Amino acid sequence: MTTRRDALRLLGAATMATAPAGLALAAAPQGTGSPAAQTAAGGARQWQVITTARGSAARFVAAALPAPRAATQPVETDIAVFVDSGKRYQEIFGFGGAVTDATAEVYAKLKPAAKQAFIAACFDPQQGLGYNVLRTTIHSSDFGTNTYTYVRDGDRALDSFSIAHDMRYRIPLLREALAASKAHGTGMRVFASPWSAPAWMKSNGSMLQGGSLLPEYRDAWARYYVKFVQAYEKAGVPVWGLSVQNEPMAKQTWESMNYTAEEETRFLADHLGPTLQAAGLGDRKLVVWDHNRDLLPQRARHILADPKARQYVWGIGYHWYETWAGGEAMHRNVAAVHAAYPDVTLLMTEGCIEKYDAARLQDWANGERYGSQMIADLNAGSSGWIDWNLLLDMRGGPNHKANFCFAPLHASDDGELVFTPIYHYIGHLSRYCKPQGRRIAASTSRSTLDATAVRNADGTLAVVVMNKTEKAQRYRLFIDNAEVVVDIPARAIQTVLA
């Protein structure tokens, strides 16, 4: 039997084992940096820096910084990071990923020790990512081996509703995640998103290729959410919230369904919201949009302008795939919506790197993309960041439509756990920027560095700094009226704890 101590040892060592031919496994988390800065002699808090850099096998490497001194005027030739803890912004909701059918199926094939290491890697707040949010799907998405629903075709009364399919892989993994969260006291929230209504409820007669919800099935589809929540909770998985629809403007070859802004507004206001309330589930949080940043302002304005719909809206979810059109990530749209509706929570609810290629599994740029996106989204006003699949196989699946993607963790063909740069870049934020903390002002004097900062509820301050250049840089870190000099290697991410 694998003990928790064994699992934590494996978390640091399992991926150093011999890789399959042609594959170099990445180093797992090795650092000992505490979420709170160490206390120096005399009671003053010792600032420390935790570093992960390309070219070094070690990850999350902690080192003490010199004692901070009184800040002095920087000059134009200095590289500097400025943090003002008196300027407080949004509260941090948390970080997480998705338990899809693919993730659960791959997890079931891991060796017992690797399973323990996976749970620690995702949910341990000291040595892992410390996730406190999990997304899952209402019946199938593309990430799984098949398309399915929970009811027989044409069962408008939903009498045949059954989650038996999910009881094999997905619900057991969700239960393990919830148990780990309970043990660590991290307060896990599970929310669910549908990719499509059953085919017989839709205009195109298929769960694939978009199509819309037929008006005569709006009530039945709303009751389907109720059945889902009730069934999952009976199975031991409390459902904290729901999104109305995954990617409502995308027509995909896999499970997908389209809503215009008005259609989503009416379904929420006239069907889903009232149906949940009537079933005694009115306290479940509802997230709208759940699609890319490009159309985010238009969808937010339309739904939130409707008083009947707005009363049900807890937050607005968005994804990062707007770059499919060839442009840059549109963080400015997140900032615009946050400025217009500061009382509505914004969450990044899905992102992954597509077009899986095993030769790129350990590409450092994959991690850097995550780091840049997470920092920019937090600075734009997002309260949390939820990745896509927690775990995939060595082909980037399973995916029944061959939409193979990268994940933070992959499983080797012989059942071992493979860590990627994505995992480590996520961890530099999720491990140290804690739920209920508040983002505070952070800026840089040069575009060669990116930075964000959070004041945690326990008083610790986490400053995340990222260097995407090929040159090491020395910067002056100013926190209020104190400063310290910090060195960051080339192609590295750091978290400074103060």
Can you put this structure into words, describing what you see?
- With 498 residues, this protein is α/β, with parallel strands linked by helices.
- Helix content is 27%, strand content 24%.
- It is built from twelve helices and 21 strands.
- The strands form three sheets. A ten-stranded mixed beta sheet has the order 2-1-21-18-17-16-4-19-20-3, with helices on one face. Strands 5-6-7-8-9-10-11-12 form an eight-stranded parallel beta barrel, surrounded by four helices. It has a three-stranded mixed beta sheet with strand order 13-14-15.
- Helix 11 runs parallel beside helix 12.
- The longest helix has 18 residues.
- It is globular, with a radius of gyration of 23 Å.
- The N terminus is likely disordered.
List the helices and strands and how they pair.
Layout: H1 4-13, E1 48-53, E2 61-64, E3 69-70, E4 80-91, E5 94-98, H2 101-108, H3 112-123, E6 133-138, H4 164-168, H5 170-184, E7 189-194, H6 218-234, E8 241-243, H7 261-278, E9 285-292, H8 296-304, H9 307-310, E10 313-319, H10 331-340, E11 345-350, H11 364-380, E12 384-389, E13 391-393, E14 409-411, E15 417-419, H12 421-430, E16 438-444, E17 449-455, E18 461-467, E19 473-479, E20 482-488, E21 492-497
Parallel strand pairs: 4-19, 5-6, 5-12, 6-7, 7-8, 8-9, 9-10, 10-11, 11-12, 13-14
Antiparallel strand pairs: 1-2, 1-21, 3-20, 4-16, 14-15, 16-17, 17-18, 18-21, 19-20
